[in-house]
């Protein structure tokens, strides 16, 4: 169907989002220059006609006036944009709350809410991003959903009451796959950019309005009438110039937004390999009395974040200003044989069919089986695409985690207990006791009591489930208060430090928590790209590839072979520089940590190639161990690239 | 020419002040939303507790027919607390409703304490399987209430401190954030777990 989209992966889509973002920025700069020039021109003309200075110095006056006006206009626009962008970067939760969203309790027992949470959890684990908090807009009865946030780590998902009431599980899955593709394709960042830049241009019209209101009051004194005329002329000029600027910016924004919607629809089909899910969801919007409408007043500026057209657009401007392509066109692109009918919405109390899609999936994807290899969740990015196999795999992983642990992980209260339990030492009784003692003193006593029970359940679970379980808890941990979060993180650090050494899982845990919770609690600094080539980074790459090689290989020779494979795949980027297998002590976790922090500053495209090299090193012996899987996951997390896991049997490259 | 510079500077200043005020307002709204959301977490747990109490009373009834008064006190306190919760949910930023919720929950805690104290005299009841399951569920709900209440109070503290600091303190009353939000404090679950001598009527 969408052959071009099938070939492209997340990295390409992210690149394209960035390219769009750049294009928009360039157009924005042109627009700002034009607006400034226009406003300056008007001011200059007014100065020419009204000033009473001698003709000899008239030109000088006009130039000075125009320049000052231009500078102030530019300052106003840019500060308006910067301000709005910095505000929106504050995180997805504040956006969701400002739209009237209420957080859904991760341990909710409401069947509809539970179904939604399950669908999202499967999707998150399948795509390698932490489970996002979910917000419900209880007063909205149109069928709609959105994803908000600046980076995948602080993303949230919002859904309307109408959405969870009116859709079946398959349809819901289709809608969520659409939202996840926005998250993974880097669309949210692009959206925030566009909203912010647009806001700056709108400021000009706001200033125009203010001037218009202020003009009559300032028209006093002997020059009163002149000042009034001046202000009115400038006010109108700003209004008109600003409106034209804003309108053209909106048209470009809407055009980009529509492209990204088609892309997200196509990706949703690709993730779920079930065109009916998303097509039927769209058909239900068509058959729903309220369609996808959102009543909340702040929808105006957030309209293009939604799944369906949230605002009613007047017919004249529909084709140029709509943030979404027409419903019919979207359905036809997904299902070319569509007969043009829409669907009635589900009756609210209709029985929820659990996992009805599983049978259908079976015919498309070969069964993965439940052997040791199928349970492994090795991160990586050979394809950079989430497929139905990933979702099915995620579901099978979730089901294999003991129920008690899953319940505890979903609960805001006991989420931290699950992490503590995973960190308890089960071999050395002394250390174990010291850890328990620490928790008794520094954690909520009831949580401390829970930890021992959970830890003994976790010890029966196969080790490759630890990482997905950790991912699950991230969703609930995001809801701790700042103080509770600080206490939790301090306890985690203390539990890890008690034995004076950091083992692999502990390191992975620290990496995952730092990456995702710091983003959520606003403690991380934005990542700045510093490296566009690998020439200077050979030492860091050597550490990275050696660490991975040692984790999997049985002897020095095999490790060397694996590193060679990785080096080979990076050949074009290295330009003749060599990667060496370092001895274990030079590629231990400490060295790896330092190296990754440097590598995290590489451009996205380079990170993709790095991850590919990592995957080749890990897969060199055709066997992926839990250690390798966890290591890869942490590497991807620290590099800041969410990537669907590599599945057993998946074709390499 | 002077007038142009003045006009330009004025316009710019107006824009800066406007952005500044809007910024303060937005931050206040965000913080308020955050504590309202934290309240939603408590609401879930309190509701859970209110739902558990009738089944607890039902179970207990069979064993202690002579303690009608205690049971009624529990049911009454539960109903009062449930309606106080409903009011508080309507407007979690109102200190009044928050206070009456705190009082009602305190009274419920007291009544439950009374019930548990009386139960000590019925060893059969303590051995009842469904009873111990209910009690376990109730205790864990209590813990969760305490935990989410802590998170709620944290976010209230953050909102209040932010609101009271300069320069927000000047802008806040103008944009409708003139009063502090109320903390939620009630007589803690310690009473229920320890079950000491408690006034049966539940009045503090």
Q: Short summary of the structure?
A:
The complex is a heterodimer of chains A (653) and B (204). Chain A has 29 helices and 4 strands. Chain A has helices spanning 3-7, 10-50, 55-88, 92-98, 111-127, 161-166, 169-184, 187-218, 224-272, 275-287, 299-302, 318-321, 327-334, 358-364, 372-375, 388-400, 403-410, 415-423, 429-442, 445-458, 466-477, 482-497, 504-520, 538-552, 556-569, 571-574, 589-599, 604-619, 626-639; strands spanning 102-103, 134-137, 145-148, 156-160.
Please describe what this structure looks like.
- The complex is a heterodimer of chains A (653) and B (204).
- Helix content of chain A is 65%, strand content 2%.
- With 653 residues, chain A is mainly alpha-helical.
- Chain A has a 4-stranded mixed β-sheet.
- In chain A, a hairpin with a 7-residue loop joins β3 and β4.
- The radius of gyration of chain A is 28 Å and the shape is globular.
- Chain B contains 7 helices and no strands.
- In chain B, 77% of the residues lie in helices and 0% in strands.
- By secondary structure, chain B is mainly α.
- The chains are: A mainly alpha (653), B mainly alpha (204).
- Chains A and B meet through α3, α4, β1, α8 and α9 of A and α1 and α5 of B.
- Beta content of chain B: under 5%
Helix content of chain B: over 70%
Low-confidence stretches of chain A at least 5 residues in length (pLDDT < 50)?
1-7, 348-383, 648-653
Q: Using DSSP, what is the number of strands of chain B?
A: 0
The most extensive interface, with participating residues per chain, is: A-B, 44 and 39 residues
| Computed Rg of chain A | 28 Å
Strand-pairing-aware structural class of chain A:
mainly alpha
Instruction: Specify the number of helices of chain A.
Output: 29
- Shape descriptor of chain A reads globular
Choose one word for the global shape of chain B: rod-shaped
Q: What's the total helix number of chain B?
A: 7
> What kind of assembly state do the chains in view correspond to?
heterodimer
Cα-atom radius of gyration of chain B: 24 Å
